[in-house]
């Protein structure tokens, strides 16, 4: 016990020294405020990650870099935010990978259905050389990728019927992200896939113009989708990263020491969000069940995986060597 206490004390002292050193680096820097936007609410994992990022950056720059968080799509949907970052009207955001892939096509390799068998497998690829290489490609489109947070494993919900196999999806109108891999995945599964922004999807579910959607458990819970969706299938069909991303116009104006803090803080905030998501999922599922949602935890995964084989045939070569490299890394 004494050893543990000594180690904890030593760690605390070393972290304090690092903080002090970082703060000293910013003595001569003019204060700057960065607006960080996302499209979900304050109960969501994105906001948890953004808040942690804000705390780390302000502490390590001695308040010289101030982060202002804009949740709830208050500065626009995800495509609008990315376009704003490119021209410098938005500073930074936490953006789902799907919309980012519309700017760097190879990023969509992560969206391929049933690619990652577990969160840990995804983290190994994202935090390793392949993930970093793809983050760096964002600079080609005037964006700066900092780190991968997560949207998580996506699951299907709908208002019409229980879904256990692809046949059960036949004709259901399912909202998907505005990304061709998602659209084609759900068309192969037999659904009527309807790409639309998340803010529009919420209204469409309330009005009954769509039957369902697909998102991680934390989103389904934080947006109280049990109020419009009666059924959930834990299909875990896609692992969706999310990206801490900045506009290059803003990034290039920052001193190097501030850039270093932002990159390190983004990685730590991302890892914090991943852990919180994992810790909260069981409680969120229990709450959704209690609210009346019927949850299928054991759908026919083999049937789902077989149905999406054409998606790999269509897109595999489109991502260059990224798909085989990821598959090799996962072995």
Explained architecture:
The structure is a single chain. This protein has helices at residues 2-25, 45-60, 78-87, 97-100, 119-126, 129-137, 180-188, 198-207, 217-222, 248-251, 256-290, 301-307, 309-315, 322-330, and strands at residues 32-37, 65-70, 92-96, 143-158, 173-176, 192-195, 212-215, 231-247, 294-296. It contains 14 helices and 9 strands. With 331 residues, the protein is of the alpha/beta class. Helix 2 (45-60) links the parallel strand 1 (32-37) and strand 2. Strands 1, 2, 3, 4, 5, 6, 7, 8 and 9 form a 9-stranded mixed beta sheet that branches.
How much helix, percentage-wise, in residues?
A: 40-55%
Please give the radius of gyration in angstroms. 21 Å
The H/E string reads HEHEHEHHHEEHEHEHEHHEHHH
pLDDT < 50 runs, ≥5 residues: 1-11, 13-18
What's the total count of β strands? 9
Mass-distribution shape = globular
Describe the main β-sheet briefly.
9 strands, mixed
| Secondary structural class | alpha/beta
Mean pLDDT rating: 92
| Distance between the amino and carboxyl termini | 39 Å
Number of helices: 14
Organism: Vreelandella alkaliphila
Pfam families: DctP
Signal peptide: 1-23
Protein name: C4-dicarboxylate ABC transporter substrate-binding protein
């Amino acid at each position: 016990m004494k050893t543990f206490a000594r180690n904890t004390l030593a760690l605390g002292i070393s972290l304090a020294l690092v903080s002090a050193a970082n703060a000293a680096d910013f003595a001569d820097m003019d204060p700057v405020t960065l607006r960080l936007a996302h499209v979900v609410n304050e109960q969501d994992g994105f906001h948890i990650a953004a808040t942690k990022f804000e705390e780390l950056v302000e502490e390590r720059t001695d308040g010289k870099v101030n982060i202002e968080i804009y949740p709830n799509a208050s500065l626009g949907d995800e495509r609008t935010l990315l376009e704003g970052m490119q021209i410098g009207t938005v500073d930074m955001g936490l953006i789902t990978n799907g919309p980012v892939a519309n700017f760097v096509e190879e990023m969509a390799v992560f969206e391929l259905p049933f690619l990652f068998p577990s969160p840990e497998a995804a983290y190994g690829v994202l935090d390793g050389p392949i993930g970093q290489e793809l983050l760096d490609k964002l600079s080609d489109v005037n964006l700066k990728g900092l780190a991968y947070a997560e949207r998580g494993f996506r699951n299907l919900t709908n208002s019409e019927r229980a879904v256990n196999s692809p046949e059960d999806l036949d004709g259901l109108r399912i909202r998907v992200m505005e990304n061709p891999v998602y659209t084609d995945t759900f068309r192969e599964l037999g659904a009527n896939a309807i790409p639309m922004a998340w803010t529009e999807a919420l209204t469409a579910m309330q009005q009954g113009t769509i039957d369902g959607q697909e998102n991680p458990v934390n989103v389904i819970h934080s947006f109280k989708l049990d109020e419009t969706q009666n059924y959930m299938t834990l299909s875990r069909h896609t692992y969706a990263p999310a990206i801490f991303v900045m506009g290059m116009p803003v990034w290039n104006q920052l001193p190097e020491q501030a850039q270093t803090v932002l990159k390190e803080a983004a990685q730590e905030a991302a890892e914090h969000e991943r852990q919180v998501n994992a810790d909260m999922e069981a409680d969120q599922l229990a709450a959704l069940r209690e609210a009346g949602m019927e949850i299928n935890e054991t759908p026919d995964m083999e049937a789902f995986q077989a149905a999406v084989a054409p998606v790999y045939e269509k897109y595999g070569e489109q991502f260059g060597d990224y798909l085989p490299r990821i598959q090799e890394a996962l072995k």
